[in-house]
Write a structure and sequence with these properties.
alpha+beta; Heat Shock Protein 90; Ribosomal Protein S5, domain 2; 2 domains; five-stranded mixed β-sheet; 9 helices; globular; disordered C terminus; binds adenosine-5'-diphosphate; binds magnesium ion
Length: 352
Amino acid sequence: TTPSDSPTIKPINKGVVHRICAGQVILDLSAAVKELVENSLDAGATSIEIALKDYGKEWFQVIDNGCGISPNNFKVLALRHHTSKLVGFPDLQSLTTFGFRGEALSSLCALGNLTVETRTKNEPVATHLTFDHSGLLVAEKKTARQVGTTVTVKSLFSNLPVRCKEFGRNIRKEYGKLVSLLNAYALIAKGVRIVCTNATGKNAKSVVLKTQGSGSLKDNIVTLFGMSTFNCLEPVSISVSESCKVDGFLSKSGQGSGRNMGDRQFFFVNGRPVDMPKVTKLVNELYRGANSQQHPIAIMDFTVPTRACDVNVTPDKRKVFFSDESSILIALREGLQQIYSPNNARFSVNKV
Ligand code: ADP
Ligand code: MG
């Protein structure tokens, strides 16, 4: 047999590329809402409301009182790789904002229907903006609003049939993941009032979670999980090196929970919620050494020099690389061993 002709290499249609990439940035409902909440935090908001309709399936909205978007940015707002946050490559090494790639709004346009209402302190009225699936501004009208921004996404994934079907089928699970993620931001965003509401069918909206905008992690834990839960926690503060430390709260060794605490374990790097599989494993392993019957709550914020970590690893920015992960893990193991050692006088350990 003779080999068939070598096929011609051609560029993929731009719109298709856009949709393919968008589907990687916005994997699910929680990834979509996360991007909007991060934009509100980056805009300096002190109040953020996340409103869901039918658990986010119908639409979701993030309403903030941040700086707003100025009219000269309206046209480029939802274009891919357009951002007000990152200019040159060196900026990537000293990131202080959640966003930096200018992909979220453009991806949300590709996957659903995006509208924005915004007003800066220099504008007397707000503007309502409608974007098409390629991120182009297609309609603009004046409206009433306080200073800040509301971003609304309708029919997420309507443009990706398979994902859309999955989304509908797994909506309760997606919603659970979203609530856990919002808890993470509500815990760590100090001085920011965060409220999430959901309205189903014809019912009025109900409050899913709510913080008061306190400046302390302790207050946020008490508001979200209750005083009795807080009383079962022990503050932790472990120093890894001169410029690196871990602060937070962990279940006291005799006072974990019988159920899996996966939705009550939160890890942050410089105030950014992230996944830390190795740290999660270590915490659970050492806790199990002291209490084999229960699972711990864990809320741990790592302070690391921005140059020593890289958050630009995965499209959802949930993964981080550390330049010296092994010394972090070693110091953490030692610190946790001290806390969970049966001889530690700080606890009344209920041996099980
Ligand atoms: P990135 O956050 O990486 O810059 P996005 O696509 O999420 O990219 O947002 C694009 C730009 O839109 C941001 O850089 C910011 O200037 C503006 N923006 C988005 N959301 C808001 C908001 N809630 N308040 C003020 N500006 C916003
Ligand atoms: Mg962003």
